[in-house]
Amino acid sequence: MKNSFFISLVCFLFLLSCQDKQQMKFERISAEKTGLNFKNQLTNTEDANILDYLYFYNGGGVAVGDINRDDKVDIFLTSNQGDNKLYINQGNFKFKDITEQAGIQQTSDWNTGTAMADVNGDGLLDIYVCAVVGINGFKGHNELYINNGNGTFTEKAKEYGLDFNNYSSSVAFFDYDNDDDLDLYLLNHAVHTQNSYGKASLRNQRNYETGDKLLRNDGDTFTDVSEEAGIYGGINAYGLGVATADFNNDGWTDIYISNDFHEDDYLYINNGNGTFTESSKSMTTMMSRFSMGSDVADINADGYMDILSLDMAPDDETVLKRSMGDENYEMSQFRVDKLGYHFQYSRNMLQVNQGGKYFKETAILSGIEATDWSWAALFADYDLDGHQDVFISNGIPKRPNDLDYINYISNESVKQKIENTGLIDQKAIDKMPDGKLQNRIYKGSYGLKFKHKTEHWLPEELTYSTGTAYADLDNDGDLDLVVNHINEDAGIYQNHSPQSNTFLKLEFNYKPKNKTGIGTKAIAYYKGKTQWQQLYATKGFQSSSEQKLFFGFDTISKIDSLKIIWPDHTYQVAENIKTNQTLNIKRIHKRDSFDYKTLKPNTKPLLISVDSLPGLNFTHQENRYTDFKRQILIPYQISDRGPASAVGDLNNDGLDDVFFGSSKFQNPQIFIQNNSGFETYQNDNFKPLNKGENIYADISDYNNDGKNDLLVGQAGGEFYGRSPALLDRLFVQKDTVFSEIKLPQNFLHTSVILKDDEACPSLYGFGHAVSNDFGQKPDVYAFKNNCDGFDTIESELFKNFGMVTDALWFDINNDGTKEIITVGEWMSPKILSVKDREIKDISEKFIPKNLNGLWQSLALFDFENDGQKEIVLGNFGTNTKFKASHNKPLQLYYADFDNNGQTESIVCINKNGKYYPINSFDELAQQMPSLKKKFNSYKAFAGQSIDEIFNKKQLDKAKILQVHTSASGYLKFEDEKWQFHPLDDYFQIAPITSMKPIDLNKNGVKELLIGGNYFGIKPYHGRFGSFAGGALQQNGQFLTAEDIGVNFFNKAVVNFDVLNFEKEKYLMVTYNNDAIELYKL
Question: What is the Cα 181 distance to its own chain's centre?
Fold first, then answer.
């Protein structure tokens, strides 16, 4: 019996081992077997070290291609301090070093990026090598090795005008002017000097050493056209990545540049006339701060190229808390408002293309936001299942962003020692932690999400991996990897993709001066699916990959058709193509031109944008107040949730008038409609409103006299205690004049006020927060309306009710009486029964357990048109670092931890079963200085959980608030209970702040219009601005912003209102800190 068990166990473990081996996609083949005996060995010298040259550890590049036309991919590798090497592929993963006999004799002291391209149009791949020259004693110039076709190369950079002696990091060959030859983008980088810091306008002052260059191919030479083409060339650009693609599908190649440090990434849109327009601010909501390498691919099969830019954000808590992170909120705003830069944050950014008009950022939702010290990103279908996966190279020998090192090097005596002696300070270098890391790989899908597959697909190894290229080295149809490592042998990684999965490899034969067809597009159609690819070789970091396109099709043996769109805009189609083959596709002459307009949606939007209505002009201006200055640890602001807006008849003429609330010290505005438009209405009685933030407004008859009155809810984080600015106010209309009727005092940070259905409606006021005491649950007030005054309704349920953001009435139990539904932050939705002044909490009967969220908005909508309304809940979305689940909720610890009479609110996320503060040590110690005594270094603090930072006594007195989900969704009554369902990922990009049922398509059935975005968060989170809007339909489908005709991108939606004007209906959208927008319904 025991022997049988043992045999069974051995068999089971053997099967597990086989399964793991089958899952392992990439196998590293040793240098002894491959003959690729190349090592980028770095040695500190007086002139070359991390203290004197900030990019000392950036590593070398890789270029791959068939240099001798034997249908095998060869490899070229650059070494920073050593010799560059050229290896010829002999088959079966055997390579031969032919550097010397090929005539590769480098002249430069410090080599960086490289690319293979047919520079002279003779059908042979040449090699271009970038160098850093002119600093730290580095000599030489960029090199161009022209392929002689006999196994040798001749260096001719000077003859072609490409022998630059500046600070080059990478190069991309592409045809920007569509004249069928290859032009060149030279990526350079700046170094830290007093001149490189300053306003963004520094980019407009050209600098030879640091500025990027666009070189036009004029046949026998290249001409610098940078300035006339609109390419920046300033002293503040730290270019580390260059990617080319046709982002807007107009047939012209665009450019994406990844810049390190304070300079923005550049998104150059090709105008088709030899010039580019830099469009990063208008087309993105934010970008990486320390941008490294990048790549582009169509990750969601919509026909538009998406962009991944890498940063160096770690996901390990120990490394994270030791590393320099984002700036504080005020400095970030200063960089944008005063220096002119775009919003930048320290993490990877995945920019998902929205029809070539703008990009929504989804890296967190997609699961690839933090991959540590990352260099190369390479999209490809590595497992041949039809989806774009992504490989990321990682590692650095020393981490110069370590906070303890920065403290050490900031010491004045240390700085003077290094500057005055000119010697290497080995102690300073030793202060930097080692950054040897595991490379990463993520499996893609047709949606936006990636699955982390490193453990199963890559060998378990820690390296310093930098430049990387992919190629089919063994001609088996899947893509292998070549990785340039620092201080160890370069790696060849053989891909063992599933044998059952099929492929197509496309080799193009275009025109003589661009034979491989750089810039060609291919669209594969099969089984109702579509894949789109574009051919560009430079990608990742300092490297260029094989100049072919690779498609995977899972197990499909034949595809329906393949459309090829050539760079000259002609196209051709092949049908019924068998998979598992290499197609050599030659351009057919006399083909029709491809109409790029056919790639655009041919649907008419439901709404029409209207510039303005006569006299109705309002722009909200948020006052300059930062909640984080008063409460350092709070996760987001509470003072920027306005303005209020309300539509109704304020002068009893049957026409819609409009009220807009104000920020502190600004006057609210009332617009009265007349026969020709709108005119402003002034009334001194409204002056008390300019002392606070007007968050809520309603126009209704509150005293049953047949005239509408105005109710305004007040808030503002800068006010606390019994500040008059927090009093909600009711203005009653008498003889066309509004005068205030005092409500019972209610010093509440109001978010929403509900009124009941009585002739003189009673009021239920809900608070968002307690000012200067984030984490404390605010009370609710209830005022019984006696038509000539109000009485307070008391209830124990109203005390410490919750951080409410929205509320509405709904007869949830179909008993003929409406209940109050509330949602809020750090709480679950609540249901209150209100009958004869008796208030009961009946939430348990209807709300599922573990549904605490950061809820922002609330609406009722009948998804199935069956008469049963669902409850739609707007949350923060899943594209946030506020990661939460039922089993691992987000937690807020609320207590006076240091007994100084002021409470702290510490938000913690769960990692590996422990809770870690999202705040940095500096933030925590600024609020609680006693922590500096417990932790005398960042290293000592790094990796400490909340249980290790505070003792049991401190934690026992803390109140813990939780969030179980950040997903927006809806409650549906099914199987005799209400159940929660998340909305589609389309609605999870940003917080949903406003929802309104509106008949958008005029078919008599309402859709639920949804808006969102929010910017009052710390730079740690980034910026929630990518949601352009959408709508839910009753058929279970949804409409995109483009379907509707709205665009809320980069704007924070506060309210939707419907306005009647001249027998037409208009949608009015009110934004925080922006002008209103109008759409004709």
Answer: 35
